[in-house]
Amino acid sequence: MSKRLLVVSQYFYPEQFRINDICETWVSKGYDVTVLTGIPNYPKGNFYDGYGIRKKRNENYNGIEIIRIPIIPRKKSGFMMGLNYLSFVFSGILWGLFNKKQFDAVFIYEVSPMTQAIPAIKIAKRLNVPCYIYVMDLWPENFEIITGITSPFMIKPLEKMVDYIYKNCKKIFTASKSFKENIQQRGIPANKVFYWPQYAEEFYRPVDRKSSEIFQDEKKNIIFAGNIGVAQGLDILPEVGKFLKSENLNIRFNIVGDGRSKEKLISEITKEKLNEFFTFLDPVPASDIPYIFSAGDFSFVSLKKSEIFSMTIPAKLQSSMACGMPILLSADGEVQDIIKNSQAGFVSDSGDVKGLLENLKKIDRLSKKEIQEMGRNSKNYYEKNFEKKKLMSIMDDFLLRE
After folding, report:
1. Distances in Å between the alpha carbon of 162 and those of 14, 109, 398?
2. Does the reported pTM lie above 0.70?
3. How many CB atoms lie within 10 A of CB 172?
4. How many whole angstroms separate alpha carbon 339 and alpha carbon 385?
């Protein structure tokens, strides 16, 4: 009999998250996969066309049964985001009470919010099956950074919620080694917490065809692809642009994606008359990103300065390395070690404009051969440490042995 998995993830196809590929891979291995998710509205905050409270609530995607529970769209305010989080919890608990389906295990894909784990745990308890969680955002730390809320009246209940979640999960998987250490410091036994890094989908690979959207001239192209939000720390770019202009460097940043901070970033760059050093592109399907990368010279990976983000390995790192891209990094902590050990690019601390500028000077002087060598180092490191088949096999060992 196939393993019957209930995956609880507030985000799922057509939203672009790695859990889509994880579930497809499980189906290809013979698992029976059901996903409990919300109505797609990330990152813009509005329901996608064709989806709604009364539209496409049940769907089959590549053999995966998708059940969409009612939620309030996140919009663009902190208040609405809070309602979005709570609505998923409420709807998920209700669904669990009336659900008649049987499952062998519950798997939580935890990118913020951590609150989505509450209905998952209640469902697992009701069915008397093990519950697993894959942690990519630490709470309440991530909540504090994104919202700016630090009041003990809000944070202490979240601390208790997180402890409840960890204690009621049979196994906890983390996307970074630093996360593993942090969770163990909360009193969770070491034999319950496992480092399971993210991989990149198989379409992330070096390709010959270059995207026509990345202008080809004498400038070196830096590619940022992904969410444009507070966590990414892109607010340093206008200052960087001033330097590119004053030093007359042949470098252009290409920002591909969308998010809450995009309009403000464009406005500041336009105000400073720096448009010649920046190109903004609309989001593209994830499968098109390799062609964007192919037209670039470096992938820009950045995070806002904070203790929590110094423990984070952003998913775009694996995507970039799988495509053989050299990395320009503006982030702290564990991710710096990866770039240094792989010799795949240049690193500077989060928010360190001066350090980033020095690295841009180095990139401006690099030969094509030197860039290609860094790209090969990047790809080789990915294959040794983040290759999909190896990592999915490790997860199979956990799920099938229970």
Report:
1. 28, 15, 23
2. yes
3. 24
4. 12
DSSP state of 146: H
Own/partner pairs for 240-247, CB < 8 Å, 24+ apart?
240/353, 240/356, 240/357, 240/360, 241/269, 241/272, 241/274, 241/277, 241/278, 242/272, 242/274, 243/353, 243/357, 243/360, 244/274, 244/277, 244/360, 245/274, 245/276, 245/277, 247/361
Distance CA 193, CA 161 (A): 18
The Cα–Cα gap between 106 and 108 comes to 7
Q: How far apart are CA 324 and CA 372, in angstroms?
A: 9
Domains and CATH numbers, the chain: 4-199+387-401 (3.40.50.2000), 220-385 (3.40.50.2000)
pLDDT above 50 for 1: no
Largest CA distance in the chain: 66
Residue 86 CA to residue 94 CA, distance in Å, equals 13
Residue 252's identity, in one-letter code, is: R
Q: If residue 183 lies in a helix (H) or strand (E), which one and from where to where?
A: helix 177-184
Beta-strand relationship, 64-68 and 58-61: antiparallel
Residues 66 and 33 sit within 8 Å (Cβ to Cβ): no
Q: What residue type is 275 in one-letter code?
A: N
Hey, is 108 helix, strand or coil? Answer: strand
Both tokens assigned to 118: 């509450």
Residue 66: CB partners within 8 Å, gap ≥ 6? 12, 13, 34, 35, 37, 58, 59, 60
Model pLDDT, residue 402: 62
In the chain the first and final C-alpha atoms are separated, in Å, by 14
**DSSP-assigned letters across all residues of 31-98:** -EEEEEE----TTTSSPPTT-BTTBS-EEEETTEEEEEPP----TTSHHHHHHHHHHHHHHHHHHHHH
Q: Which of 141-145, 202-206, 212-216, 351-355 has the lowest mean pLDDT?
A: 141-145
pLDDT tens digits, 326-375: 999 999 999 999 999 999 999 999 999 999 999 999 999 999 999 999 99
Point out which residues pair with 301 in neighbouring strands: 329
